[in-house]
């Protein structure tokens, strides 16, 4: 009986040893297989739940501190996304305004050639509309500090164009007929050139955040432009101190210049560029319009051009009234 028990115990021990050996063999094989797969399953040292953060960490830095080995990072200077968006917006806006200005002048050239609109009227309508439409396009530019310079590119291109044709380097009869009084190329270097220079000055110096530039351009474009149209058609009664100017022209300049200035100020205020006390603003704009009208009526034959005197006087008066807000 004891012998049977000893044999049974011995067989149990052998069975346990066999089971342990089989288990060890299976575990060894599993560990070997896992060691092969571990490099593929292991989480990276700089893994993150945000793939964008991981991308920036991997691409914006190089040779960072790893395992107590520290090397200075090298940053790649990438332009901010907001800057790129503003750049595209301003470039597109400039291109759009240039195209619009070219279309405006070409349209009136066509009307003049067909004798639908007489030359002097066409010239003054271009004078009025080009500046006001240019200023009205300022809100489509971005809010970046460089936006004003992109806007100034539009009159700058026109400035170069006037210089090229005014110096007779290139001939363009349509342009000359549309913006000059007597159809002479050298006239492009006077009134039309002063006009675009004032657009550049107001764009860079004042821009859309200041009522000074808005009022000054409104008086030069709208006020001075309508004075010539009304004076030529209805100017029977001349001003005593200047036989080349009429009461109708001066009164029209004051009224239309005042109304356009108020309208443009309201237009820009609706975009939030400035806030105004309108009772106070109306008084100041009326003062600016009066000063500009008086200067425009003065005899300046062979002297200072209206495209210089009117906006400059308007700037000074508006500056003293509203204050400088660059």
Automatic annotation (TrEMBL):
The keyword Metal-binding does not apply. InterPro entries: Phytol/farnesol_kinase. The chain crosses the membrane at residues 247-268. Its EC number is 2.7.1.182. It is an enzyme of class 2 (transferase). Keywords: Chloroplast, Kinase, Membrane, Plastid, Transferase, Transit peptide, Transmembrane, Transmembrane helix. Pathway: Cofactor biosynthesis; tocopherol biosynthesis. It is a multi-pass membrane protein. The keyword Plastid applies. It is found in: Plastid, Chloroplast membrane. Its main location: plastid. GO terms for biological process: vitamin E biosynthetic process. It catalyses: phytol + CTP = phytyl phosphate + CDP + H(+). GO terms for cellular component: chloroplast; chloroplast membrane. GO terms for molecular function: phytol kinase activity. Belongs to the polyprenol kinase family. This is phytol kinase. It comes from Helianthus annuus (Common sunflower).
């Amino acid at each position: 009986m004891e012998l049977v028990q000893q044999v049974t115990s011995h067989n149990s021990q052998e069975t346990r040893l066999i089971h342990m050996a089989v288990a060890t063999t299976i575990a060894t094989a599993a560990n070997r297989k896992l060691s092969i797969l571990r490099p593929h399953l292991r989480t990276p040292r700089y893994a993150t739940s945000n793939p964008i953060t991981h991308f920036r960490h991997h691409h914006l830095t190089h040779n960072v501190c790893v395992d107590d080995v520290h090397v200075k990072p090298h940053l790649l200077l990438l332009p901010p996304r907001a800057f790129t968006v503003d750049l595209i917006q301003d470039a597109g806006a400039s291109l759009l305004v240039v195209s619009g200005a070219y279309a405006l002048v070409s349209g009136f050239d066509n009307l003049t050639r067909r004798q639908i609109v007489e030359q002097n009227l066409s010239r003054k309508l271009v004078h009025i509309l080009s500046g006001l439409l240019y200023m009205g396009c300022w809100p489509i530019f971005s809010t970046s500090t460089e936006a004003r310079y992109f806007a100034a590119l539009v009159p700058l291109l026109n400035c170069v164009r006037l210089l090229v044709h005014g110096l007779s380097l290139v001939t363009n009869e349509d342009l000359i007929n549309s913006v000059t009084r007597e159809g002479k190329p050298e006239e492009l270097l006077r009134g039309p050139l002063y006009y675009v220079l004032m657009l550049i000055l107001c764009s860079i110096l004042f821009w859309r955040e200041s009522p000074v530039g808005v009022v000054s351009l409104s008086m030069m474009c709208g006020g001075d432009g309508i004075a010539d149209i009304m004076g030529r058609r209805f100017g029977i009664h001349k001003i005593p101190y200047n036989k080349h100017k009429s009461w109708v022209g001066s009164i029209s300049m004051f009224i239309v210049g005042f109304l356009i200035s108020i309208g443009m100020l309201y237009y820009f205020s609706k975009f939030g560029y400035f806030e105004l006390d309108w009772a106070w603003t109306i008084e100041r704009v009326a003062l600016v319009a009066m000063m500009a009208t008086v200067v425009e009526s003065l005899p300046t034959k062979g002297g200072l051009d209206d495209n210089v005197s009117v906006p400059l006087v308007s700037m000074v008066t508006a500056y003293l009234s509203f204050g400088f807000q660059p």
